[in-house]
Specification:
Length: about 270
């Protein structure tokens, strides 16, 4: 918004100056308009450059934190310490540290809000996703009305929160967004919506959704779930094979297999 006012000011100033020096009114309007356009382009490029710099900084924080996390995972794999759940808690604690650093880094965008009308919503979307990873759902719910939904995971997160808050507008959101989200990106939305329908015991509707999803995405998980429901094997319905993409919604916990206990045998006599 501020960029528009500045551009109008510069364009108006140039037009007035041309008029002051007795140029024809058409020239005054042309120069004023060109001044407006040129200022808009220059300020737009400058703001875009600043936004990219700040975005890169956040991406570096996440990438650096993830790299440290991967090294710790490799260390745990070679030298296990405690049980699987203990290791998961330690890794989650480390992950939360760099996510909070990324949230703090988003504050740098605030000084640019007056220059870009959409930037505040974009930052709110980013923060919403970060708080979701931290499982701070009160903050997530507060940011949901202020965010943008153009990528599949932000849409899935909103659908999941609507479901948890018993707000059935997740249905309207699904059908609105699934028209625009294509290929593999659509898998999580079909998987999530069919899961909700199964939880609501709306099996026939879930079958129709999975039918559409498997044809559109050719995804094996959707195919298997469709077969399970068609054959009245509802208990076999599972999105677990989607891995992190599914568990990132925190609707189900990762099932950690229990270690098999070996029977102790005494010495042969």
């Amino acid at each position: 918004m501020l960029a528009i006012f500045i551009s109008l000011g510069i364009g108006g100033f140039l037009g007035i100056m041309m008029f002051y020096f007795n140029f024809d009114i058409s020239w005054c309007m042309t120069v004023g308009f060109l001044g407006f356009i040129a200022t808009q382009i220059l300020t737009g490029l400058l703001i875009r450059k600043l936004v990219k710099k700040l975005t890169d900084n956040i991406q570096n924080i996440i990438a650096g934190g993830q790299q440290k996390l991967n090294k710790k995972i490799q260390f745990f794999q070679t030298r296990p310490q405690g049980g699987v759940k203990t290791m998961q808690k330690l890794l989650e604690k480390d992950q939360h540290v760099f996510i909070r650093q990324a949230i703090e880094a988003t504050r740098a965008f605030e000084k640019l809000y007056s220059w870009n009308l959409l930037l505040k919503k974009q930052v709110n979307t980013m923060r919403m996703q970060f708080y979701y990873q931290l499982r701070e759902f009160e903050k997530v719910d507060a940011l949901i009305p202020k965010a943008m939904y153009v990528d599949h995971m932000s849409v899935a997160m909103k659908m999941a929160r609507l479901y948890k808050n018993e707000d059935e507008s997740y249905k309207k959101l699904f059908y609105k967004k699934i028209k625009k989200i294509k290929n593999e990106d659509a898998v999580i939305l079909y998987a999530l919506y069919s899961w909700i329908l199964v939880k609501k015991e709306k099996i026939e509707e879930a079958i129709k959704v999975l039918q559409q999803g498997k044809e559109k995405t050719k995804n094996e998980v959707l195919e298997k779930n469709w077969e399970s429901l068609v054959n009245s094997k509802d208990k076999k319905f599972s999105n677990a094979d989607l891995g992190d993409m599914w568990y990132a919604l925190y609707l189900e916990e990762v099932k950690v297999p229990k270690p098999k206990q070996q029977l102790m045998r005494g010495p042969y006599r």
